[in-house]
Amino acid sequence: MPVLSSLLLALTASASSALLPRVDAPAPFNSSLFKDLNVSRGLNYHYYAVPADTGKLTLLFLHGFPSTSYDWRHQVPFFQDKGYGLLVPDMLGYGGTAKPLDPQLYVSSLVTRDIIDILDAEGIEQVVVIGHDWGSKTVSRLANYFPERFHSCAFLSVGYMTPALFATPFEERINLSKAVLGYDNFGYWDFFSSEGADQIILDHLDSFWDIAYANDTTTTITDWSPLGALEAFITNDTKVVTVDYVTPEERAIQMEAIRQGGLAAPLNWYKIARGTLEGQDDKGIPQENALIHKPIFFGAALRDYGTVSAPIFLAGALVASDTDSSVTIREYNSDHWVQMALPDEFNGDLLEWIESLGLDA
Ligand SMILES: *[C@@H]1O[C@H](CO)[C@@H](O)[C@H](O)[C@H]1NC(C)=O
Ligand SMILES: *[C@@H]1O[C@H](CO)[C@@H](O)[C@H](O)[C@H]1NC(C)=O
Ligand SMILES: *[C@@H]1O[C@H](CO)[C@@H](O)[C@H](O)[C@H]1NC(C)=O
Ligand SMILES: *[C@@H]1O[C@H](CO)[C@@H](O)[C@H](O)[C@H]1NC(C)=O
Ligand SMILES: *[C@@H]1O[C@H](CO)[C@@H](O)[C@H](O)[C@H]1NC(C)=O
């Protein structure tokens, strides 16, 4: 309870400046470094911004579902102390950023434009971009639409999503994953895209959080991924042993952020991918940018069975690059949440890769 009340205090204190919702991730984030930007299409983005020391690169960290910038709490102090510039937004639908309910507003051509608006507002020409989960889709599309704004791209848990991926009808994707993995890896997208799923999850949030952070990740094969399984699991309020690397205080902060923002907006990330909106939008990707012509880092989570990072998809990550670009792959004995599960290992690898790019002064 003390954590929740201090979070609420922080929220109230920082709400003074505007009508805009303000949800600052707590320490180790420095609350005075959060900013808001009304991007060109008139939506507010809330983001953490640390200017780079002279000669240092700026790193752009993009989180996934169902999260906020707080997912990067172990990376922010590590890279900030080393003088790197940081941009860590709450993605569309989350935290202090706008939460429109129209799924069409979530397609990649629009979300990537928002991110570029943030770079423009900060006066930053090029960044190193790092994505996790659905953040990896945004990294993919940033590389497709705005390759000139990046030195290099890093994908964590979820690899490069090719323009062809969402052009394939959902039923075919389900069948393909069954054929390749032996289970219908994407079945939960059906539940996430269904009417009322947001309220069902909120009504059973403890059970939902449990399975999202289950210590035994094979649970996701039986109780998360298959069609119908996740809804059955949470409506039953089933509990499982959760990971030990998220403290009870951190869990309370994450769950409170979900309760405050709700899930109607975040689930749009699934709706556009389950349906045809993302596939249609991806037709606008210039053919010459379908492959990434920049150095790539892929952090594979070897015990993540719920997303396309399952080891079997490793090869797919390589397809992302053209023959001249360098690909660095690191494997983690981790579940989906590598940046929280193995922060020291991941931070060290990311730093080594960034330094190896030879871009720092
Ligand atoms: C937070 O950032 C502000 C503005 O840069 C700075 O003045 C302050 O010392 C920082 N606080 C901490 C605890 O680092
Ligand atoms: C954001 O910008 C749009 C125009 O792009 C404007 O109509 C709207 O009033 C602005 N919102 C805020 C909160 O400033
Ligand atoms: C998927 O597999 C099911 C069951 O084998 C089959 O009935 C269906 O036609 C397949 N759908 C597609 C789109 O391949
Ligand atoms: C959690 O998972 C780890 C690694 O799979 C295992 O060694 C450990 O025994 C598990 N802890 C609990 C409490 O189940
Ligand atoms: C429902 O809960 C019971 C007891 O907690 C458990 O044995 C059962 O497997 C659960 N069912 C589902 C679908 O998770």
TrEMBL record:
One short Pfam name that applies is Abhydrolase_1
> Which keywords does the record carry?
Hydrolase, Signal
Which family, according to the similarity comment?
Belongs to the AB hydrolase superfamily. Epoxide hydrolase family.
What range does the record give for the signal peptide? 1-18
Domain AB hydrolase-1 positions: 58-166
Q: Which domain of life is it from?
A: Eukaryota
What is the protein's species of origin? Tetrapyrgos nigripes
Gene Ontology MF terms in the entry: hydrolase activity
The name under which this protein is listed is AB hydrolase-1 domain-containing protein
